[in-house]
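Late entry, written up from scratch paper. The run itself happened at the end of the previous shift, but nothing got recorded in the book at the time, so transcribing now.
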Amino acid sequence: MRKTASGIEESAPGQIDEAAFKIIKKLFKTAGEKVKEKLGRKKRGLAKLEVNHAAIAADLDAAWEVLAEAVQTVMRRHGLPEPYEQLKALTRGKTIDAQALARFIDSLALPADDKARLRALTPATYTGLAAALAKRLR
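Output as recorded:
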């Protein structure tokens, strides 16, 4: 038998004695139990959190610029000039509201049904391609 650098006796290279194995096993078991205990406490803590629906709704209502993606997509579909640049001029560094976005949509040379669909969108209801992308992950 010889001792390794960590002081564990091994009978042959790479083999440790039974006592050392039991000690190591117990250490890992104890460490695993501690990790499990801490995760359990965190999970219980997270369960106490509540969603503030009013705050989320207010945040969304203040973020009409998120609909620029939908407007840009429809503009591109109909071949309107410089959709990105037009929307950048409308939204970059500015806060826009429903009325400002509706005025912009009404100024575009789009079919009436596309304008109506775009005006019907809200930040709370628009998900873009999220549903389709999520289905690809399954």
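The chain has two domains: 2-47, 56-130.
(Scratch paper discarded after transcription.)
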